[in-house]
Amino acid sequence: MPAFDLRTPLRAMRGAVRENVALAPYMHLRVGGPVDWFLEPLTEEDAALCVRVCRDSNVPLRVLGGGSNVLCSDHGVRGAVLHLGGHNRMVRDGLRITAGSGVTLASLLRSTKEVGLAGLEKLTGIPAHVGGAVAMNAGTREGETFEYLTSVTVIEPTGELQVLAKTDLQPRYRDGGLGDRIVLHATWELYEDDPNAIFQRFSESLKRRNATQPVSQRSVGCVFKNPPGDAAGRLIEASGCKTLRNGGIEVSGVHANYFVNSSNGTCAQFLELLEEVRRRVQSKFGVYLEPEVKLWGF
Length: 298
What we know:
Layout: E1 15-22, E2 34-41, H1 44-56, E3 61-64, E4 70-72, E5 77-83, E6 90-93, E7 96-100, H2 105-114, E8 117-118, H3 130-136, E9 149-155, E10 161-165, E11 182-189, E12 191-192, H4 195-212, H5 232-238, E13 245-246, E14 249-251, E15 259-261, H6 267-285, E16 294-296
Parallel strand pairs: 2-5, 3-5, 4-16
Antiparallel strand pairs: 1-2, 6-7, 7-11, 8-12, 9-10, 9-11, 13-14, 14-15
């Protein structure tokens, strides 16, 4: 049983408040233990209430979308997880489209393509939700989430709702510059193009991604950030780590900066493999690789 109660202070919240929920089913890698409290608010105001209650109760709070860039300890995490997967509404206004934090990038790209709005095809194949993509400025070699973004609605650490313009933030490589703010929805201003031309770019990008990344396997995306002027995948492969295995976790034979869960792997096995790969790269090239994956429960 959790050492603290959230059900009582959240009795006015619309949504679900659950105790001792296993996180592995919500993680793309399918590993991870339980969390004390799992919160699924229905509205933005309810999500803000969760933040205020956890702050006032000194309960650690983490935010979960699609779980595509998160590694959770086998022992789980203390505190609460705010799950925003149900915030999946999209609204179009001319060249602008607004998407909730729970919208998958795949759904967002399909919707914009169908109405002839271009610009987001560069994000094709990223297995993220809007909230996570904005928070980490997810991207590919072709472009990043913030390229056409105009504004984002967030919950401040105080529990207040706030609308921020792109100019209010300082996004950088794999970091949206949001700090401890929580993304509720984001707006992009795109440009018109022939849907067939958009579809062609979409298809070409997806084809490249399928050929160069293990998109059909369970992973957390890129494990390490690319060091300045180089690629983590190249360094890992050149260090002899491609297909290196530790239990059920293996360095992908398709792209060395992806670790895949091929057979009931654990978080502990993933971390051991991460450290071994990092050690080999540093020994051979003198480069210390920084994780891109978010670590929970450590």
